[in-house]
Amino acid sequence: MTNLFLHADINNCFASIFRIFNPELNGVPIVVLSNNDGSIIARSQEAKDLGIKMGQPYFEARPIIEKNQVRVFSSNYPLFHDLSTRFHDTLGMFSPHQEIYSIDEGFLDIGGFYNVDLKQYGQKVKETVYKWLGLPICVGIAPTKTLAKLANRIAKKSKKAQGVLVLKEPAHIEAALKTISVGDVWGIGRKYAEKLQAFGVTTAWELSQVNDAFAKKHLTVVGLRIVKELRGVPCADLEIEPPAKKGICTSRSFGQPVTSLEELREAVTAYTTRCASKLRKQKSNCLQITVFIHTNRHKENEEQLYNCKTIQLPVPTNSTLELVHYAMIGVAAIYRPGYKFKKAGVIIDDIRPAQAVQGNIFDRIDRGKHLELMNTIDLLSKKMGSGIVKVASEGINHNWKMKQDYGTPCYTTRMEDILIVR
DNA sequence: TCTGGGGTCCTAGGACCC
DNA sequence: TCTGGGGTCCTAGGACCC
């Protein structure tokens, strides 16, 4: 059986999603901002052509944006997530062996396909996603995941490929690798690219030709796998069942500086609530919680503080109430008056399956009651929107909430959001 | 005025044990 | 000045991803 992987991803994902609902945005430059409208996290092709950079601070790009009448949008994760689910569902129609790699990328294992014209097959995937969702995608097909991603990359740039590239024959693969610079290989970041260039390895082809000991020594075993995959030797299977998370983190920058403990308590309560809900969703408990707060590191003339506190829990739990209790102890321990805090976050760690809780004779909490309450809250949140039930310490004013000046409706999901925006 | 958020894996080195 | 050998576990830090 031959090894064959298909990699599909949405072109300029977040910008393309806004275009589905606003056809007048077609052909117009678009940027999408990070949480808090801080920096640019997605651009349409037109915006890329203007020289607007990924990750660039919004205020810095503002002159170009205004001069060229670039359309600006805040992130809308409920909307992105919904379209992402539809995209992956559509891909899943093409093979039972599917990996949901990220919000806008997926792999299919098509190794068992015989007598199939692969180019045509890739085209069919691409056309189907466009027809059903209105989202433009590209497709790469190759004997390893690394090569499939690379094929996709070439498909995006090449006119001839029409958005679909199959890399199968060795000569064809070699020619393709020679056109890709080493830093554009999946898994080779900035540091490794610099290191490799210093050794005279500048293209993906040259990387595929280094010896194994060299790869292991300078890029660890992870790099060795990349090198082998570039040679067409698969080292990674699909991850069909997403593994349970080992750590869960919720953190946000504030829309304006926060100075009071009371407001920090509210924010940390909200973040802990979110962590606990993610934890219950994957049916896990945790044994450790960390709270952190810090000031704005970009303001060099202001007093800086980065403070965190980790607390070990007596018994594994996923109860919002219990976790919030410890988070409040944590935030009180690290708070210092006189600082302008910019960000806070909560990390839960030491995660294990929710069954098999090891009891503790000093445990005073009625776990049966907590469990029932959490189940009820999760059900209400699912039916009526998260936030329908809150822990009191979350407060209601939320002056710390992130800034989102360029919001859009959640077109496909919650009615009440549409009403609020109007 | 204004700079995102959430993850993974690997390695080296220290603490500790027999 | 000499100061074993082998093992495990944990953590911090570095690299990467979208």
From TrEMBL:
Domain UmuC: 5-189
Keyword annotations from UniProtKB, A to Z: DNA damage, DNA repair, SOS mutagenesis, SOS response
Protein's organism: Rufibacter hautae
Family listed: Belongs to the DNA polymerase type-Y family.
Name of the protein in its database record: Y-family DNA polymerase
GO molecular function: damaged DNA binding; DNA-directed DNA polymerase activity
Keyword Transport included in the entry's annotation: no
Gene3D superfamilies, alphabetized: 3.30.70.270, 3.40.1170.60, 5' to 3' exonuclease, C-terminal subdomain
Key word Lipid metabolism present: no
One GO CC term, this protein: cytosol
Biological process (GO), any one: SOS response
